[in-house]
Amino acid sequence: MAMTVLLVRHAAHPLVGRVLCGRMPGVRLDEGGRRSAAQLGPRLRREAPVALHASPQDRCLETAAAIGQACGLDPRPDDALDEIDFGAWTGAAFERLADDPAWAGWNARRAESCPPGGESMRQAQLRAVAGLQHLRARHPGGVVVAVSHADVIKAMLMWCLGLTLDAHQAFDIDPASVSALRLWDGGGKVLWMNEKVAG
Predict the structure, then answer these.
(1) What pLDDT, in 10s, does the model give residues 48-94?
(2) pTM of the model
(3) What contacts 189, CB < 8 A, 6 or more positions away?
(4) What domains can you pick out in the chain, each with its CATH number?
């Protein structure tokens, strides 16, 4: 039986666009992010989800808590949805990274490069896709909400579309956006991408 996965990027926090947070602790939603997360709940409730999973990062758990309140679901932390481990780059300002040749290489060749001391996007894709397959086995025929991070969501979408990870800059995944996959045994398809729910 096919399962629908609603891939939600966490809502905004004060460091979005300024700092590569990665798995940096204590990154929480700002006021606008909390409003956006609250707006996600009623939209996702219309899809009648049966389960709600989230990356263990605070910004994802906060977003999931707002969705869960509207949908009557308890969020489950899920390591498969965790952010990429950016190793030595964790917590670095994008302004500082701009002059790093390794950073330029990472963005040009995601399919083969890796952050220093961290996790490649390929590794993140493998664990995230394995997590999707686990969810499909647990919720056949159901709708599941999965709250995660931009690059991890991109990795799942590119897997489903059969794209190389080097295509990661071809589309955006915005804060508090919803993308959807329909998965079945041996296949799947993208239903929609980057729906912006919050105003």
Answers:
(1) 999 999 999 999 999 999 999 999 999 999 999 999 999 999 999 99
(2) 0.97
(3) 160, 181, 182
(4) 3-196 (3.40.50.1240)
